[in-house]
Amino acid sequence: MSAPLKTRERIIQGSLALFNAQGERSVSTNHIAAHLGISPGNLYYHFRNKQAIIAELFALYESQVDTFLRRPEGRTLTVQDKTFYLEALLAAMWHYRFLHRDLEHLLESDAELAERYRIFAQRCLVQAQCIYQGFVEAGILLMDAAQIEALTLNSWIIMTSWVRFLCTTRGNPGDLSEEMLRRGIYQVLALEGGYTAPQAREAVEALYARLHVPLDRIVR
Question: HTH tetR-type domain: which residues (predicted)?
Answer without folding.
Answer: 5-65
